[in-house]
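Q: What residues go here?
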């Protein structure tokens, strides 16, 4: 397998998953956006993208779920149809759509778009929308160290990256359970999130 992407981006998710799952791969990191093959594996030329024997898979959380499924003996995911798998899908979708999307909107405007396309009027709205959802995760983590079946799983890789990203924007201030969750994740020897 070849993984297009590098840290600190969403490529961190599959890099971390592969480390936890002991999967060997070739990392394409240098000048990755100029790599002529990237568009074969990601239709928007974004990262991460995974080349699996010539077949492309994109979307970081989908890649992580696929990788965990490929190594069931590592116990990082429950099988399709199990309640725990439904919870994995739930928390992954929640993090991506109800938290990360708002944070990404601000990050992209500030750091990627040309100045004339930036939308600073959205920044406060995005922060508030992220935090409304983050409060729900905060409540869930009141009684849990990890999100599914009280054990570390690929769900925590997907959701953990979202929380880390929120942190880089200062969105998690006062969310003690989320901050403690991030500390637990970054204490893992194979975690690829940068320590706070
Ligand atoms: N939802 C996608 C997002 C992919 C994405 O936007 N990746 C960023 C890096 S974190 C990127 O490639 N940005 C380049 C750009 O926006 O042109 C995923 O989770 O994989």
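A:
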């Amino acid at each position: 397998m070849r993984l297009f992407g590098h840290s600190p981006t969403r490529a961190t998710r599959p890099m971390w998953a592969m480390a936890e799952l002991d999967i060997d791969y070739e990392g394409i990191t240098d000048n990755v956006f100029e790599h002529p093959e990237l568009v074969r594996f990601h239709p928007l030329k974004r990262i991460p993208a995974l080349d699996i024997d010539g077949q492309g898979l994109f979307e970081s959380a989908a890649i992580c779920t696929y990788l965990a499924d490929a190594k069931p003996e590592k116990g990082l995911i429950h099988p399709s149809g199990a309640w725990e798998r439904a919870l994995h899908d739930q928390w992954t979708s929640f993090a991506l759509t109800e938290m990360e999307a708002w944070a990404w909107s601000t990050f992209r405007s500030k750091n990627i778009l040309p100045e004339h396309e930036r939308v600073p009027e959205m920044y406060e709205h995005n922060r508030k929308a992220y935090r409304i959802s983050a409060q729900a995760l905060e409540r869930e983590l009141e009684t849990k160290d990890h999100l599914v079946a009280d054990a570390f799983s690929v769900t925590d890789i997907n959701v953990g990256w979202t929380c880390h990203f929120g942190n880089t924007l200062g969105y998690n201030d006062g969310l003690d359970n989320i901050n403690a969750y991030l500390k637990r994740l970054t204490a893992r020897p194979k975690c690829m999130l940068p320590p706070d």
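A: Context that may help when evaluating the design: The domain at 83-186 is CATH 1.20.1050.10 (Glutathione S-transferase Yfyf (Class Pi); Chain A, domain 2). Residues 9-10, 46-48, 59-60, 112 surround glutathione (CB under 6 Å).
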